[in-house]
Amino acid sequence: MPGRHFRKNRHLSKNRYLAPMSGVVLAGALAGSLAVAPMDGGSGNPDETRPVPAPVHRAEKAPAHRAEPEPEPSKPPADCKPSKAKEREYTNGRIPVDELCPLPQQGELLRADAAVAFYKLNAAYQERFGEEMQVNSSYRDRDKQAELYERMPAGMAAPPGTSNHGNGLALDLGDGVQNGDSPKFKWLEKNSEKYGWIHPDWAYSNPYEPWHWEFDAGQSD
Ligand SMILES: [Zn+2]
Q1: Is there a contact between 117 and 215 (Cβ–Cβ < 8 Å)?
Q2: Closest by alpha carbon to 191, among 143, 134, 124?
């Protein structure tokens, strides 16, 4: 008896549930079709507003992601004219700044022929080590060389007017190159000459300056 009753109730409740459920489903379907209609009609608005912020986010993220694995090698500015560089003779440490070429390393300058050659060396270095060279010093005007000469221990900085930094033809490098046993120094020693750059003989011992590299202006072209 109770079992029968139970079954009956269950059956009843099942039937009762089916009716309202189908009603809900129908209502939902109707609501869905109703909701679709205005969206299709007015798709211009939501479709226009949604993609607008999305590309902004992508644009912000994309360069950071791309810059890390494959950085583009820097190129010399168009007005950097190596052919004219040798013709103009300036006193050591007195080269007008606008006659010099900026390096990719911010604030660093070299004579145009040395700069153009450096961009090539820098690109090869970047390809090998995955980053650009670290330049700690490039062109130095007379005042800067004089200041350095006073500050540095005797023999560690050339007297003003005599350094190749004053000719815009020398660089002091970091990032490991300052250590003569480092792979980066060894790589430069082996490869820099192809790009017109050398480690001068004196810098091996008198004084020992592994970081100091010079553009060999005597080279052809
Ligand atoms: Zn130097």
Answers
A1: yes
A2: 124
pTM of the model: 0.67
Could you tell me the distance, in angstroms and rounded to a whole number, from the CA of residue 76 to the centre of ligand 1?
22
Residues 60 and 86 in one domain: no
Report the separation in Å between the CA atom of 128 and the middle of ligand 1, taken as the mean of its atom positions: 23
Q: How far is the CA of 126 from the centre of ligand 1 (A)?
A: 21
- What's the domain range around 58? 2-67
- How many structural domains comprise the chain? 2
**Residue 163 to residue 89: CA distance in whole angstroms:** 15
- Terminal Cα distance for the chain, rounded: 112
pLDDT in tens, 27-72: 444 444 444 434 443 344 444 444 444 444 444 445 555 555 667 8
What's the token pair of residue 128?
């090998």
Diameter over CA atoms, the chain: 119
Residue 192, CA atoms < 13 Å, CB-side half-sphere:
22
